[in-house]
Design a protein that fits this description.
It is a single chain. The protein is α+β, with helices and mostly antiparallel strands. The protein has one domain. It has five helices and five strands. The strands form two sheets. A three-stranded antiparallel sheet has the order 1-3-2, with helices on one face. Strands 4-5 form a two-stranded antiparallel ribbon. Strand 2 and strand 3 form a beta hairpin. It is globular, with a radius of gyration of 13 Å.
């Protein structure tokens, strides 16, 4: 999935206290359920700041969140993710390894690396 220029992708995990209705109230669309508690989201640019504030307050310790869009990649990466520095240092390729982000990363950055 490739988001429109005014929307961003985010995989939300480690946030069981964030309800679907809270996300919907911000205009965030749940486009994919990726497993126990993981949601693939489409975040409109107008909801970036409210979404960030919600995640800052409700994200569980030890988890991180990212936003991927056409003009920037935003991320808060915890050392607790368990992946070696060599794997995460090329952030574009690292995100392209996630099937949810792959199309967007290839389209915007020409990166395609599968884990």
């Amino acid at each position: 999935m490739i988001p429109e220029p005014v929307r961003y992708l985010s995989v939300l995990m480690g946030a069981p206290d964030v309800s679907d209705s809270e996300l919907g109230g911000l205009g965030v669309e749940i486009v994919e359920r990726l497993g126990a508690g993981l949601r693939g989201l489409l975040v409109p640019a107008s909801a970036l700041e409210p979404y960030r504030r919600l995640i800052q307050v409700k994200l569980s310790p030890g988890f991180w969140n990212d936003l991927v869009g056409p003009d920037e990649v935003l991320f808060l990466c915890s050392v607790l993710n368990g992946d070696p520095l060599e794997q995460t240092s090329d952030l574009h390729a690292y995100l392209a390894a996630n099937a949810f982000y792959r199309d967007a990363m290839v389209a915007y950055y020409g990166v395609d690396r599968k884990r």
